[in-house]
TrEMBL record:
Species: Popillia japonica (Japanese beetle)
Pfam families documented for this protein: Retrotran_gag_2 (PF14223)
Highest taxon listed in the record's lineage: Eukaryota
Protein name according to UniProt: DUF4219 domain-containing protein
Length: 179
């Protein structure tokens, strides 16, 4: 019995891309790997690296070798997209602090998963970078307290602010304003 992908015309270029794309989407769905292909939301993107590798291999085997030159560096496109998302995520664009922190950490984990290392220090700095101006006092306090800036430390500090905001939206609760 022939494999499903043996029955699919290989991708040769733009002339058969749409029919190939439709067929491959269905092959991956039959294999249970539909969350390995884009577009999917961050919430349901496949995290199992074995499934991701197998789905990529299945796609590549269904591409004519003459097209390989155009896809060999596609990992760079993924890295750039994830880096853009990582550096452009802002608290003001998210529904909550939890959503903000989750988006940044998930994106950093995806970058780490494809071999682009986001260090703990960089993760902490990126978490601080996307905050609103109301968090400047907290950032200055962190800078002066000698605490190591790591993703885990900053994540904990930010999640501790949930429910502890004053009426003006600042990151501190219970501070008395002196006139």
């Amino acid at each position: 019995m022939a494999n499903r992908e043996d029955q699919i015309e290989k991708l040769t270029g733009s002339e058969n891309f749409h029919t190939w794309q439709f067929a491959m989407k269905n092959v991956l769905e039959l294999s249970g790997w539909e969350n390995c292909i884009l577009p999917v939301t961050d919430e349901n993107y496949e995290k199992d690296t074995t499934k991701l590798k197998k789905s990529k291999a299945k796609l590549v085997l269904c591409i004519d070798s003459s097209v390989y030159v155009h896809i060999l560096d596609s990992g760079l496109v993924r890295k750039i997209g994830l880096l853009r998302k990582l550096t452009s995520t802002k608290l003001e664009d998210c529904d909550s602090m939890m959503s903000y922190v989750s988006q940044i950490i998930d994106t950093a984990n995806k970058l780490n998963g494809i071999g682009f290392t986001v260090s703990e220090e960089w993760l902490g700095v990126i978490l601080l970078t996307g905050l609103t101006d109301n968090f400047e006092p907290m950032i200055m306090g962190l800078e002066n307290c000698g605490l190591a800036i790591t993703g885990d430390t900053i994540k904990t500090k930010l999640l501790d602010t949930i429910g502890h905001k004053s009426n003006d939206g600042s990151a501190f609760f219970g501070l008395v304003k002196i006139k």
